[in-house]
Amino acid sequence: MYAKEVVVTNASGLHARPAADLVKFCASFSCKLTITGGRGPVDPKSIFSMMSAAIKPGTTLTVTGEGEDEETAVEAVCAFIAALEE
User: What is the pLDDT of residues 22-50, one digit of tens each?
Assistant: First the structure.
């Protein structure tokens, strides 16, 4: 298991469009990914899970990966979240 924290800097948080982009991005990794820090643990490979999290700007998230490409996936997902813009 590998985990890393990232702060959501996007002024709108992870609303519909960035959440959908994140889900598509996460689908390319084979490991199990989990994001905590919003409303409990969510699956970033599921749009329904991401939308239910209602992640606001300034939220510190912990991205956790378990599996074959966990470290690569977590680092990439954290970079993706940190780089999100409107």
Answer: 999 999 999 999 999 877 899 999 999 99
Identify the CATH number of the domain in which residue 70 sits.
3.30.1340.10
**Residue 3: active-site member:** no
Confidence (pTM)? 0.93
How would you classify the pairing of strands 32-36 and 2-7? unpaired
Q: Which residues pair with 33 in a beta bridge?
A: 65
Percent of the chain predicted with pLDDT > 70? 99
Domain limits for position 13: 2-83
* Nearest-5° Cα angle at 46, 73 to 86: 75
- Name the catalytic one among 12, 15, 43, 62: 15
Tell me how many domains the chain contains: 1
Report whether 79 contacts 3 (CB < 8 A).
no
The residue among 3 and 39 whose pLDDT is bigger is 3
